[in-house]
Design a protein that fits this description.
about 220 residues; alpha/beta; Rossmann fold; four-stranded antiparallel β-sheet; hydrolase; Lipoprotein-releasing system ATP-binding protein; transmembrane transporter activity; ATP-binding; cell membrane
């Protein structure tokens, strides 16, 4: 079966104070369908930069990124937007939920943007939120929820469109240890249940060990730990 993600020779550098800083140096990475891969490394190691590249969120990268069989470098802006919308889901450390929308509306919106009808989008949102223990919070806004509940809402939103690949950047980094364990367990359960693959950036070796495979970012290259 073809890989959901195949990255080859990915490089990224910045110029700062007249000095060139190489953040990614020829990164090679594959993620198989349904596989959950931990991207391990300390803060500042380039994990977020790699996820931004794979998420097609910014330019300036050299190398190949193939998502669900499509080469991102061959796509124009509209094509990258389509691929990001149809094949990817995102979970961030700081939620980025819409504060004026309740839990159901936050999960409905990406589905409607993709073209789903309102009834099916609401049913899907309620199913995902209920499966994450938020069935009693469907009408609550993010400010009315705890940090762990907000992150579970973000997980539901990321999976709303049944993405082939979920990208998670320190998804439990803003939570206490007990809540982080609960949220990660729910995240892994739901991603596996949906049949999605995931690439999860973390600096926490204990949490990384709960995933299917661990790769580590060292001096701009990925290696097995």
């Amino acid at each position: 079966m073809n890989d959901i993600l195949k990255v080859a020779g990915l490089t990224r550098s910045f110029t700062q104070g007249g000095e060139t800083i190489e953040v990614l140096r020829g990164v090679d990475l594959t993620v198989a369908p349904g596989e959950i891969v931990a991207l391990l490394g300390p803060s500042g190691s380039g994990k977020s930069t790699l996820l931004q590249a794979v998420g097609l969120l910014e330019g300036g990268f050299d190398g190949s990124i193939r998502i669900a069989g499509e080469e991102a470098a061959r796509l124009d802006n509209d094509g990258r937007t389509r691929l990001r919308r149809d094949a990817l889901g995102f979970v961030y450390q700081f939620h980025h939920l819409l504060p004026d929308f309740n839990a159901t509306e936050n999960v409905v919106l990406p589905q409607v943007i993709r073209g789903a009808d309102m009834a099916s989008a609401q049913a899907r949102a309620q199913l995902l939120l209920s499966s994450l223990g938020l069935g009693h919070r469907l009408d609550h806004r993010p400010s009315q929820l705890s940090g762990g509940e907000q992150q579970r809402m973000a997980v539901a939103r990321a999976l709303a469109n049944r993405p082939a690949l979920v990208l998670a950047d320190e998804p439990t980094g803003n939570l206490d240890e007990r809540t982080a364990d609960v949220v990660l367990a729910e995240f892994l359960r739901l991603v596996r249940g949906e049949g999605s693959a995931a690439l999860v950036a973390t600096h926490n070796e204990r949490l990384a060990a709960k995933m299917d495979r661990v790769v580590q970012l060292q001096e701009g290259r990925l290696v097995s730990p």
